[in-house]
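During the second half of the funding period, the structural biology subgroup turned its attention to how the target accommodates small molecules. The most pressing case was flavin-adenine dinucleotide, which had performed well in the primary screen but for which no bound structure existed. We therefore specified the complex as follows and requested a full 3D prediction, including the ligand pose.
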Amino acid sequence: MHRITVIGGGFAGLTAAITAAEAGARVTVHESHHTLGGRARTAEGPYRTNDGPHALYNGGPHWAWLRQRDLIGPLAPIPPLEAARLRLRHKGALRRTPPFAMLKLLRRGVGPAPVDIDFLTWATGIAGEEGARAAAHYCAVALFHHDPESLSAAFVQERLRRAAKLPPEAHYPRGGWAGVVDRMAALAWNLGVRVETLSRVDALPTETPVVVATSLGAARRLLDDSSLTWPSGRTALVDLAVRTRRGDAFAVSDLDAPGWIERFTAQDRTLAPAGEQLIQGQIPLAPDESKADGTARAEELLDLGFPGWRERLTWRREAVANGRTGAVDLPGTTWRDRPAVDRGDGVYLAGDQVAAPGLLSEVSFNSALTAVSLALGRRELDLKHA
Ligand SMILES: Cc1cc2nc3c(=O)[nH]c(=O)nc-3n(C[C@H](O)[C@H](O)[C@H](O)COP(=O)(O)OP(=O)(O)OC[C@H]3O[C@@H](n4cnc5c(N)ncnc54)[C@H](O)[C@@H]3O)c2cc1C
């Protein structure tokens, strides 16, 4: 029987642990925090904000895998009346529909975008500069970068298509991702996985195989390998609760600059006390921008979509997520160019900035499966889940 050590108990680590245990391995997970989940944690208390993921995209590979194991749990569907309250800021005003030029990029006849060219150059040829910029900014919800126009056209096009799909791919586990994490942890436990929390690993274990399922920054330090880097985003997160008012927007997508604000209680009433609404603004920051700049932009969107929010405010929290929103690919690069999963000598990486396809946490999921199949020498795991 194989033994396998997993460092990190986030979505990647739990996926790796379950996959390895199902394949018959004896698994130990070390997690430095006192709870599992990593970025997929949901805050305790009356305002159940998510540190990281909210949406589970049903077009992703993790959807079927989680479903097969009954790990998704109850979902919080967006009522159609609420979904109709999605607003777009364009040229300073709120509108209900995207600019026509932007829609040109979503037509069936538009072929795959090139990898080597930036999105703005490629998309301007189809939709004009205004349509191209609006489309790039709309993708902020799925790529969290201050300058999506400058990224690889192929990378942004994939996110645009998935973020704009109808019916929407985004689904919301009721109560946040904490429930998904709890169910994954329970399954791991039932499969005999040994989970050690408050167990920070500062040196690689001598016994291999080891799956390092930390952030890429933590893996860089652990493996003492300065090559373990890849671009990501820096995003101001503004969480707030306001007293309920009929007619508030469900979400506001900023097409003038990257930014997204969503009222998560529209689909899930359990996230805030009765009579209050929980909102999160996600505003990508340029390198020279501060948290205050992001907050100011979030407040502009709040003023437009949530009239009187200042007087209705009951709770507020601000943070910056730096390098925590997954990989972004520059022109000339794809996921295949990111740090490889196989580091040699029985050490494998899993996480959302390594060489695996997908959107956001799907990269953590895919890389975890690849890491385990390589670690156990079982390529068929790869094929089964490809
Ligand atoms: C604002 C925001 C919004 C997002 N929205 C979405 C979304 O809607 N949908 C989506 O799919 N994804 C989303 N994501 C991305 C998603 O959160 C991540 O891709 C995913 O949670 C990463 O999981 P992971 O297991 O790879 O890493 P992590 O969650 O970072 O887990 C790594 C774990 O390793 C532990 N660790 C680190 N170092 C050590 C050590 N030395 N020893 C032991 N343990 C260690 C950490 O404590 C942590 O628990 C979002 C992210 C952010 C920040």
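Two results from this model are relevant to the next phase. The CA atoms of residues 29 and 214 lie 11 Å apart. Residues 382-386 have pLDDT under 50 and may be disordered.
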